Automatic annotation (TrEMBL):
Organism the protein comes from: Extibacter muris
Task of the protein: Allows the formation of correctly charged Asn-tRNA(Asn) or Gln-tRNA(Gln) through the transamidation of misacylated Asp-tRNA(Asn) or Glu-tRNA(Gln) in organisms which lack either or both of asparaginyl-tRNA or glutaminyl-tRNA synthetases. The reaction takes place in the presence of glutamine and ATP through an activated phospho-Asp-tRNA(Asn) or phospho-Glu-tRNA(Gln).
Gene designation per UniProt: gatB
Family: Belongs to the GatB/GatE family. GatB subfamily.
Catalytic activity: L-glutamyl-tRNA(Gln) + L-glutamine + ATP + H2O = L-glutaminyl-tRNA(Gln) + L-glutamate + ADP + phosphate + H(+); L-aspartyl-tRNA(Asn) + L-glutamine + ATP + H2O = L-asparaginyl-tRNA(Asn) + L-glutamate + ADP + phosphate + 2 H(+)
Protein name as catalogued: Aspartyl/glutamyl-tRNA(Asn/Gln) amidotransferase subunit B
Subunit-level organization: Heterotrimer of A, B and C subunits.
GO MF term set: asparaginyl-tRNA synthase (glutamine-hydrolyzing) activity; ATP binding; glutaminyl-tRNA synthase (glutamine-hydrolyzing) activity; transferase activity
Annotated GO biological process: glutaminyl-tRNAGln biosynthesis via transamidation; translation
Length: 476
């Protein structure tokens, strides 16, 4: 009988915090910019430059720690993690090993296997390194230090996950919590959320840990899922052949759907950590902690409960809307302004999601205002415009956030409800379409749809299809 294997996965998640300035200096954290434009003596590691801690970094870290049920360390310290690499200008990284800002938390995830608690070992603050750019044409490597000193928190889970599905559920839960806090936009494609996967396999039914590898260069949830499956297969094949799994760091190539070894896996002792002599301990008193707790926003889990009670929308609708804070904020304001939560939810879940997909956008990129969506809903509800026109107008609202009331008037899009005018147009349609008229009178109900379509085209879409159908039936 073939051996059965269990996959054991733990994650290290690096999250770039949404501060305007870096962790230890006043340089901008803005994404992009000319190489090395957002730099100073501190973030480029010049001799004699001293770091000064950004208070907002600590507050964001505390907020995330509280939201993932961690214990906040009242006296945390910074340490130097020593290693030599071109993108690391000081030859050490300021991080936290001995007294991290938060410990012993958890998040609840939901998968096909039910609910599960994923434990968080610890979370620490640290600075980001620069970025190496490899120019294959000139066969050189260039360094951009704009990212050097950008504030990060690293969230280290316990090895509680057993599948790619659980990993993605954990990451989606974590991302949603952090986005609701406003602590980061968590865009994997821009590097503001980066994931390292620690994975091992062992024989099912045993507690003996396998040898783990760490995988880097994972910049999408799909890449993470593919990398987990590929590494799981690779390790099982090695064990089946009687060979050893080496403890190492591997780089994932998503185009080739394969990984390759980068270096042997380091332990903490290899980095020769020691307390940073330039930074004082971070002392968090009761008053500061209570203020951060009081400032915590309503998180997704709380919104789900409230939406059911306050808006009486189905759980499936609420889950889709609250998956993005931006979407949830737009929904709540639109629902109040138009007085119709169900309609507000439908416009977001159907037309908004369709346009986001078409334009390759995320819900966080939505630019239209709740006020203009509410106006559009009221126009459609009042019958001022029909559903077809409403969808066309919404595309303009989505793209340019135009005022739909003003646009409808300027473009003459109001629904024509003058029965006399409709009857004159319908008479012409009946006269010009004898075959469809004959088919309908011969019992073919579908022919009526063709006649309604011809009428709507003649009316440039500015008619109520139900009223057109009613008059057609009378006249036929």
């Amino acid at each position: 009988m073939a051996k059965q294997y269990e996959t054991v996965i733990g994650l290290e998640v690096h999250v770039e915090l949404a501060t305007r300035t870096k962790i230890f200096c006043s340089c901008s954290t803005e994404f992009g910019g000319a190489p090395n434009a957002h730099t100073c003596p501190v973030c480029t590691g010049m001799p004699g430059a001293l770091p000064v801690l950004n208070r907002q970094v600590v507050e964001y870290a505390m907020a995330i720690g509280l939201a993932v049920n961690c214990t906040i360390t009242r006296e945390s310290k910074f340490d130097r993690k020593n290693y030599f690499y071109p993108d690391n200008p000081q030859n050490y990284q300021i991080s936290q090993l001995y007294l991290p800002i938060a410990r012993d938390g958890y998040v609840e995830i939901e998968t096909g296997g039910g609910r599960k608690r994923i434990r968080i070992h610890e979370m620490h603050m640290e600075e980001d390194a620069g970025k190496l750019i490899h120019d294959e044409w000139d066969d050189v490597s260039l360094v951009d230090y704009n990212r050097s000193g950008v504030p990060l928190v690293e969230i280290v889970s316990e090895p509680d996950m057993r599948s790619a599905e659980e990993v993605i559920a954990y990451l989606e839960t974590l991302r949603t919590i952090i986005q609701y806090l406003g602590a980061s936009d968590c865009k994997l494609q821009e590097g503001s959320m980066r994931v390292d996967v620690n994975l091992s396999v062992r024989e099912a039914g045993t507690d003996k840990p396998g040898t783990r590898t760490e995988m880097k260069n994972l910049n999408s949830f799909k890449a993470i899922a593919r990398a987990i499956e590929a590494e799981r297969r690779r390790q099982i094949e090695l064990l089946e052949e009687g060979r050893q799994v080496m403890q190492e760091t591997r780089r994932w190539d998503d185009n080739k759907e394969t990984s390759y070894a980068m270096r042997s896996k380091e332990d903490a002792r290899d980095y020769r950590y020691f307390p940073d002599p330039d930074l004082v301990p971070v002392m968090i008193d009761e008053e500061w902690l209570e203020r951060v707790k009081a400032d915590q926003p309503e998180l997704r889990s709380e919104k789900l409960v409230r939406y059911k009670e306050e808006f009486d929308i189905p759980l499936s609708d609420a889950e889709m809307i609250t998956s993005s804070k931006r979407m949830a904020d737009i929904f709540e304001e639109t629902a109040v302004l138009c007085g119709n939560p169900k309609k507000a939810a439908n416009w977001l879940m159907v037309e908004t999601m369709r346009l986001l997909k078409e334009h390759g956008m995320e819900p966080g990129d939505i630019a239209f205002s709740p006020a203009n969506l509410a106006k559009l809903i009221r126009l459609a509800d009042a019958g001022t415009i029909n559903s077809s026109v409403a969808k066309n107008v919404f595309e303009k609202v989505f793209a340019e956030d135009i005022d739909p009331e003003q646009y409808v008037e300027e473009m003459g899009l109001r629904t024509v409800s003058d029965e006399g005018a409709l009857r004159r147009v319908i008479s012409r349609v009946i006269e010009d379409t004898p075959q469809a008229v004959s088919d309908y009178r011969g019992g073919k109900e579908k022919a009526l749809g063709a006649l309604v379509g011809r009428t709507m085209k003649a009316m440039e879409g500015k008619a109520d299809p139900a009223l057109v159908g009613k008059i057609l039936k009378e006249m036929l």
